[in-house]
Amino acid sequence: PDCVTPGKKTFKCTREGCGETTTVDLPCDLENHVGTPVKAEPRAATCTAEGSKGDTVCSACKTVIEAGEVIPATGHSFGDWETEDVPESFEGLDCSTDTLTQIRTCSVCGVYEERELVIYELAMLGYIELPVDEPEEPEEPEEPEEPDTETQPVETETQPAETGTEPEEDSSSYYDDTIVYGDIDGDDLVSSADARLALRYAVSLEVGFTERQVKAADVNLDFDVTPADARLILRFVVGLELALPALTE
After folding, report:
1. 43, 70 Cβ separation under 8 angstroms
2. For the residues of 73-140, what is the DSSP string, one character each?
3. pLDDT tens digits, residue range 110-151?
4. What is the number of helices (H) and of strands (E) in the chain?
5. CA angle, 215 as apex, 214 and 217 as ends, to 5°?
């Protein structure tokens, strides 16, 4: 037999006076090639499967005689994360625990990945924008009635001239090198849990911060804990900020 043609083999009994024969079929011998070696077409790699620069095959049976050089799989080319089904109103939702789904799709093969993120985290990473309640305008004070200068003497008091103004606070003097900035929960790590705590405190969902926690949360050293601090902490966690505190203009 060869690589394309099966064979036959006949056995004969050697016992004296017998001489009976039997024939069996033999499969193709894929090592005995009758064709010529040819170079196959290269096979491009895909996102998940390896490619080849071209195997050498038998022209008769197409069996690979020598494997070609392997081309590594390319891996997926994912686009940006897109948030699905963003509600028009967040009323009734707990933004610290409720999640939204994000999807990103490979531009080559169309495979997609999903993940769930808490609404606050999506806002801090800039994927969605949470509505901000506008502060109520204070009522204008009533104008005092003017005194009757014709019947009452007007008393005047000489005020000493101001000689100077209070110096503005300096963020560099406010910096405390005993504080691990961003580590609000005190576990010696800066994590997304700290960013969530900072945001909950900034929007009055978390109360009772100690003086150390307030300082640790104020990572931009502007003397206040705001959503901007929570965003900086989360950016630091995901490697978009190199150090804390992060001074901003």
Report:
1. no
2. P----B---EE-S--S--TT--TTT-EEEEEEEBTTT--EEEEEEEHHHHHHTTSS----PPPPPPPP
3. 999 999 988 878 887 788 887 655 445 556 666 666 555 555
4. 5, 10
5. 65
